Amino acid sequence: MSEDHVEYILVTQNLTKAFGGLVAVNNVNIKVAKNKMTMLMGPNGAGKTTFVNVCTGVLKPTSGKVFFNGMDITGWEPHQVYKAGFVRTFQVPEPFLGLTVLDNVLVALGGSGENPIKAPIKGLWIDEERRNIERAFKILEAVGLGDYWDRLAAALGAGQLKMLEVARALATGAKLIALDEPIGGTDPAYADEILSYIKSLLNKWDVSFLLIEHRIDIALPYADYVYVMDRGRVIAEGDPDEVANNPKVIEIYIG
Ligand SMILES: Nc1ncnc2c1ncn2[C@@H]1O[C@H](COP(=O)(O)OP(=O)(O)OP(=O)(O)O)[C@@H](O)[C@H]1O
Ligand SMILES: [Mg+2]
What we know:
Strand order of the largest sheet: 7-8-9-4-10-11
CATH architecture of the largest domain: 3-Layer(aba) Sandwich
Distance between the termini: 34 Å
Number of helices: 9
Largest sheet: 6 strands, mixed
Bound molecules: adenosine-5'-triphosphate, magnesium ion
Structural class: alpha/beta
Shape: globular
Number of strands: 11
CATH superfamily of the largest domain: P-loop containing nucleotide triphosphate hydrolases
Order of helices and strands: EEEEHEEHEHHHEHEHEEHH
């Protein structure tokens, strides 16, 4: 498909973040295509987390621009970015470990049971509750937690908690979800399962992913497009095959 037909949910232009003399993000131009999984890889200290922090408003850029869903969101506050539909999973309040998996998603879905105008009209309230519960179950199925709906979040493993975070992000209506090391601390088989579930969400839930990942041996095949950062700069980009065969990338990871 030609470049003209690709729609981008996130575009950065010469994005730069300096901490004193250290330029952690240096003139970075990254595009995240709609309904695709874009992967950002690179060694420790490359600037990956800083890049996401600058995009999501956690840090203010030194210079450059961030466009999300066609809007210039440069310098927006984190809650504004989040409300616009660009969610960093850790921005969604931590799962309530004492609540069930289902209740965690229901909290993220919100509802008007507390709304003083609607609350007395019980019919409205019950309809909305029912719709929310149905939607929560759909979301849980989609992330592979359907069978765990009545477990306490505290009883979930590390990978399942990540998927609960994804579920909660979906419940808030996220259009772009940034995941920092979603398969960290999980065994390879479950890592594959997580990545497969994430991939299956793209079109079905009209969502896009920006995945920061270290374990490229497992994650790379799932990416639609890959950027490689090193010392603040993008040093390679392309599809997984191109990037895996790029001499600069091989040098960083093996050399
Ligand atoms: N708040 C900060 N103040 C000063 N320097 C920072 C700050 N945050 C990050 N840095 C520096 O910026 C550089 C990029 O760090 P960053 O955390 O973005 O890298 P990363 O690619 O996410 O690494 P990792 O793979 O280890 O998570 C590093 O040299 C780091 O020490
Ligand atoms: Mg990081």
